[in-house]
Amino acid sequence: MNQSRLTTTAITVLRVALGFLFAAHGWQKFTEWTIAGTQAAFTQMGVPAASVSAPFVAGLELAGGIALILGVLTRVVAALLAVNMIGAFFLVHASAGVFADKGGYELVLLLGSAALALALTGAGRVSVDRVLFGRKGSKLAVLA
């Protein structure tokens, strides 16, 4: 396998795995915790405007995760998810230390870093973005 194939494979694996995890977390906020429960949890954790931020975050994680899996608007979605994780880091997890079993930031740091990496690299060759925006000379090529 040449470097190009390895890079394509690596970006695709990262995008699909990250998308799956974000979609799962968004789905959990809608179905297991419910939006009302997520709003209450956000309020308890000190997240500002919990009544607005909880449904926004749940929707972003669910729809954004699906978008990452498909490779749709990957740079934009990944940047939004990275900002989401920055908020989770500073508002909730930083004070608890590193380890997730104590409420720490290890998962948030990993998810945010992976999202930032995709925001910087784009979706890669195996993606809807590449099909829609990957033409040479396209004004929207930055999205591919």
From TrEMBL:
It is a multi-pass membrane protein. The chain crosses the membrane at residues 47-70, 77-96, 108-128. It is found in: Cell membrane. Keywords: Cell membrane, Membrane, Transmembrane, Transmembrane helix. Pfam families: DoxX. The keyword Membrane applies. Belongs to the DoxX family. This is DoxX family protein.
